[in-house]
Amino acid sequence: MVKNLKKQESVKLDISEKNVEKHITQLKEAKPRKFVQTIEAGVNLMGINFKQTNNRIGFDVVLPHGFKKDPKTVLFGSNPNFIETVRGAFNKVITAEEIPNLDKKTLKHLAKEYDLFFAEPATLTIVGKYLGQTLAPRGKMPKPCPPNMPAVKVLTANFSKTVTVSNKKGNSLPVLHFPIGKEDMPLKDLTANFLAIYNKLLPLLPGNTQNLKSIYLKTTMGPIQYIFKR
């Protein structure tokens, strides 16, 4: 949660494309930095008891316009024919025979160095047994690998466009933070990304807009622009 915010007057709820574009434009016109900043959104919630685990929020959104770098990928496989069919879609291949011999240092390096993990369905059990304690807490447990390269490439392309919105970890505070893109992206693309996330979030709130306390946008190093504030 962003701290030490100056007190501001309330801002009426207007999540129209025009109004979102206005606030993003103000961010893009702020003092430039020596790096391309990420534009982030924050949603403060009210009237929901997040101490109850079933009330906590967590979902993925495949954005209309991606902004992440292409993921570094790993395949765990056992069948040589299967591996050879999809090998070209991966940065690294680890066979089922190698998995039991991976030490803790190597596992931590894999989890840090690579973004997305897949496993041939026949290796999922052995992957869970030897790698689950390292990969699961980092949200990197392997997904079942499709049997052809085009399908794998669709999944990796979606990863570059996917944003996770969640308050399930830690203290489950009544706030959601998520990136919507980079400041050098077209205005229309940033707006579409924000609206895609907002429109997926709203139906998940039991009171719909009544559970919204405030919504804001900001750059990595820049000031907040409230879109809505009670």
What does this structure look like?
- This protein has 230 residues and is an alpha/beta fold.
- The chain has 2 domains: 104 residues, Ribosomal protein L1/L10, rRNA-binding domain (Ribulose 1,5 Bisphosphate Carboxylase/Oxygenase), CATH 3.30.190; 87 residues, 3-Layer(aba) Sandwich (Rossmann fold), CATH 3.40.50.790.
- Helices cover 30% and strands 24% of the residues.
- It is built from 6 helices and 10 strands, in the order H-E-E-E-H-E-H-E-H-E-H-E-E-H-E-E.
- Strands 8-1-9-10 form a 4-stranded antiparallel β-sheet, with helices on one face.
- Strand 3, helix 2 and strand 4 form a beta-alpha-beta unit.
- The longest helix has 15 residues.
- It is elongated and about 60 Å long.
- The N terminus is likely disordered.
Considering the chains and any ligands shown, give keywords for the structure.
230 residues; alpha/beta; Ribulose 1,5 Bisphosphate Carboxylase/Oxygenase; Rossmann fold; 2 domains; four-stranded antiparallel β-sheet; four-stranded parallel β-sheet; 6 helices; 10 strands; disordered N terminus
